[in-house]
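Narrative of activities, Objective 1.

The group set out to show that a structural description can be obtained from nothing but a protein's sequence at a throughput compatible with the screening campaign. Below is one input-output pair from the validation batch, recorded exactly as produced.
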Amino acid sequence: MSKLNKGVIGILAGLSLPNMTLAAGGAIEGAVEKQPLNITAIIMFLIFVGATLGITWWAARQTKTKDDFYAAGGGIKPWQNGTAIAGDFMSAATFLGITGAIYGLGFDALVLAVGVMAAWPVILFLIAERLRNLGSFTFIDVVSYRLEKKPIRIISAIGSLSVVIFYLIAQMVGAGKLIQLLFGLDYVYAVILVSFLMICYVSFGGMLATTWVQLIKAILLLIGGTFIAFMVMKNFNFSFEAVLTSATEAHPKGNAILAPGLWLQGPVAIISIALTMMFGIMGLPHILMRFFTVKDAKDARKSVFVATTLMGYFYILIIIIGYGAMTFVMNNPDYHDAAGKVLGGGNMVALHLTHYMGGNLMLGFMSAVAFATILAVVAGLTLAGAATIAHDLYAKTYKTGPTSSAEEIKVSRIATFVLGGISVVLGIAFEHQNVAFVASLALAIAASVNFPVLIMSMYWRGMTTKGAVVGGAVGLVLSIGLIILGPGVWVAVMGNAEPIYPHVYPTFYSMPLAFIAIWVFSLLDKSQQAEKEIARFDEQYVRSETGIGISGASKH
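Output recorded for this entry:
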C-alpha cells in the first residue's frame, strides 16, 4: 500500500474503536505528516461537497419558516426520512468500528449490532407515533407538554446539548485530521473548513439540506458496503459457511470466534453495554428530531420501518465483511507493520479489505464516503443543538411573549455559528487527545437523561416536574461521573493504575437510578402544581393517540 493510503487508514482509525459508541470518537493522537495528494479521494470528496452545497442552495430557497428550518415543513417522504435516519447509524464509525470488533472478537461483537437493531421495534411501537403527535420540533416539546415549562426544558436542554457537543468534538477532530491528510492543510485550517461546510448546510438549508446530505451518504455507504461483501462472497462461491470456516482457520482463536466469551465478561458489563446501545439511541436529540419531518404519525412509523430495513441489511454486510476480513487481512503482510500489528489498528480491516477487493480506486471512494458520513453527522448534530437553543431555550423558556418565525430562525442561525465556533475551539483543543470517552459519554447521557424523562412523560400519569428534573439530574451526574471514574478516563486519560468504577459504560446504574428518582420524587410531590400536571395526562393521552387535543385543535 502507498504511504498515503496507510495515512488515511491511520486517521480513520481514530473514528473507530471496538464498539460503536466509542467509534464516533476514537483516539487520534500525534502529528499527521503531510502526504502526496490522494487524487481519487479528493475528486470524490469535491464531487460530494459540490453536490451537497448545490442541495443546500436549493434547500435555502425552500426554507422560509421555522417549520421549514427545523422540520422541512413536514414534507419529507417516509423513504427519504427513513434513509436519513439509517444514515445516522450507517456511519464510518459503525462501518469501521463494528467490522473491526467482529474481526478481533468474533461473536461477542454482534451484541453491538443487535443492540442497535433491538432499539428500533421499541421506537416503532412506543415512541414514534406519540412523539410525532405531541411535539413540534424537538423531543423537549414532548416532555414539557404537561409539565412546568422552564425547569423541564432547562434540564432536558442540558442533556441534549451535552450529547451534541460531545459528539461534535469527536467528529470535528476526525474530520479535521482527514482533511489535513488529504489536502495537506494545517490542522487548524482543516477544522475551520469542516466547520464552514457544517454552518453552510445547517444555517442556510436547515433540515431539508441536512436530510439530503444524510440520504446521499447513506446510499453511497450502502453501495460501497454491498460491493465489498459481494466480492467476499464471490471468493467463497456465495457460501457463508465457507466464509466462517475460512475465518476460523485464519483467526488465532479458531472456533472460539463463533461463540460468546472472548470479550464480554460478567453480567454488569454485558447488560450495561446493551442498555447503552439500545436506550441511548432512543434519547439522541438529532434522531428524535427526525420524526417531526414527516406529515403525520403514520409516516413516522413508515420511516422507522425503512430505517430498520436498511440498517438490517447494512449489518448483514458488516458481518460478512468482518468475518471475510479474517481470511484476506489477518495474515496479509501488506496490511501489517514490522511488528505484525494491523496498520491503523484492528478497526481498519474494513478499509484494508476494501483495498484488497477494489484497489486504490475503491479505497479512495470509501475514504471520501467516510468523510461524507462525518459531515452528515456533524450537520444533524448542529441542527439539533441549534433547535434546542433557539426553540427550547430562547423562544419557549426565556423569551416573554410570542416569537416570530423569522426571529426564531435568526436565533437558530446565530446558534449554528456559535456551535460552529465552539466545535472549532474544542476540535483544536482535543487535537492530540484520546476522545473515545467523549462519544461513549454522549450515548450514556442520552440513555440516562433524555430517554427516562421522555418515556415517563409519555406513559406515566404520575410524573411531575419535580420528579423529572431530579431524575434527569441524577442521570446526568451519574453518567458523567461514572465514566470519569471508569477505565476510559480515570486510567486511559488521567493515568491512574486502577479505575474506581470498573466498567466502561455507566448505564447499568445511571439509567435505572434516573427512573427510580423520577418515580420517588414524583410520588413525594404533593403540590397543587403536581396535581394539575397529573390531571393533564388525559389531555396529553388523547393527543398522543390522535394528534388532536381534547379541544379539537390539531397539533399545528
